[in-house]
Amino acid sequence: MKKIVFGAILVLVVTLGFGVYYLLSNLDNIVKVAIETYGSEATRTAVQVESVKIGLSSGSSTLSGLTVGNPAGFDAEQAFSLGEVSTQIDLKSLSEDVIVIEQITVRAPKVFFEINETGKSNLEVLKQNLSSGESKTSTSMSNKGSGAEPKLIVRKILFTGGEILAKAVPLNKEYELVLPEIAMNNLGGKNGATPTQIADQIVKVLTDRALAEIKKQGVDQYRQKLEGEVNKRLDAEQQKLNEKIGDKLGDQVGDKLKGVLNY
User: Which pTM was predicted?
Assistant: First the structure.
């Protein structure tokens, strides 16, 4: 009996050992898949990562080739290309309720700003997707057995060496602009926030800074022009519709009057 119990424990230990080994040896790929899966759900676009390298002993990680696809209705393939992203995690916080990321550095990011034929910009649509996708992402994680999204605090995030590629599609205008260095501190506040909430904050600041630079260079005037043209077309179409409705109603009223007056 003792031999059977001992054998069962040995099998359990070996099984757990292989499980831990598998987890650690595949951690980079697990994180890569998680970023692509939940990032795509939150933004409603294709989020892709070329590679992830995690140093468990140092608490550091590096992501290469992180891209965020453009929302539907825009020509460019991507909205963001974040180049190389390096992070430093407070290892002590991994056993606590809120995980603390000391610093995130994004080198050589590219922002692809696009104005489509309706006058909408891809970055604003992406922000709206993030805001509306937060609850869906949390629900998805719960349904997949991951529980609620973890809480994070990001002490500092830095965007450096970036550029903006702006394009007004209907006017065939393209611009290459410098993205000023962006530094954000204490994201998540004192109590922490979900990754989706923090992503929302980051995208909002990144978008606002990019839009400010675009306005400074006069590119935003094309958006206003396009919005004006769209509004004119809508007004003209509404006027035509009203005239058709009026003509139809007029004919019906005229027929009824003829019937009443017998002519």
Answer: 0.70
174 and 230, same domain (yes or no): no
For position 253, what pLDDT does the model report? Answer: 46
In this prediction, residue 91 carries a pLDDT of: 86
- Which residue reads 């009057």 in tokens? 257
Whether 191 contacts 151, CB under 8 Å: yes
Per the structure, the complete domain to which residue 147 belongs is given by: 2-218
Asked if residue 136 and residue 207 are part of one domain, the reply reads yes
What strand order describes the sheet that includes 98-107?
51-55, 60-64, 84-89, 98-107, 151-160, 182-187
More confident residue, 245 or 35: 35
Q: What's the DSSP call for residue 71?
A: P
Q: Is the pLDDT at 257 greater than 50, yes or no?
A: no
SS3 195: helix
Angle formed at CA 167 by CA 161 and CA 171, multiple of 5 degrees: 160
Distance CA 21, CA 17 (A): 6
The two structure tokens encoding residue 172? 């065939």
Write down the pLDDT at residue 1. Answer: 61
- Give the pLDDT band (50/70/90) at residue 23: low
Please check whether residues 22 and 136 belong to one and the same domain. Answer: yes
Based on the fold, state whether residues 170 and 263 are members of the same structural domain. Answer: no
**Is 89 in contact with 65 (CB distance < 8 Å)?**
no
Helix (H, G, I), strand (E, B) or coil at 263: coil
Q: Are residues 37 and 80 in the same domain?
A: yes
| Tokens, residue 247 | 């003509």
Q: How many CB atoms lie within 10 A of CB 63?
A: 23
The pLDDT value recorded for residue 252 is 53
